[in-house]
Design a protein that fits this description.
Helices cover 30% and strands 16% of the residues. It has helices at 16-19, 34-46, 61-69, and strands at residues 2-3, 27-28, 53-57, 76-80. Strand 1 (2-3), helix 1 and strand 2 (27-28) form a beta-alpha-beta unit. The two termini are 23 Å apart.
Length: 86
């Protein structure tokens, strides 16, 4: 799981101690600046870069992991947690 955020808050409904062991890790990217993001977005528009995502609810996480294991997710698989901001 990769979390790209300078300040991270706990993710609700995840039992870190039980779920994150062996090869499972959470990483954070903390060295990207606002300018880095602006440059990336300008470059993405110039290329043009098109993204593809497949959304999964937290209840679908096992299905998402099976699709990932079989290389059936094109682009990025995103697990949506909660409905904040809707």
């Amino acid at each position: 799981m990769i979390l790209a955020g300078i300040t991270m808050t706990p993710i609700p409904e995840i039992d870190y101690a039980r779920l994150l062991y062996h090869e499972r890790k959470i990483r954070s990217v903390a060295n990207a600046t606002r300018r880095d993001a602006e440059e990336l977005l300008a470059l993405a528009e110039a290329i043009p870069l098109r993204t593809e995502i497949e959304l999964f609810s937290l209840e679908q996480i096992n299905h998402a992991l099976q699709k990932l294991k079989r290389s059936e997710i094109r682009g990025a698989g995103v697990i949506e947690i909660g409905t904040a901001g809707r």
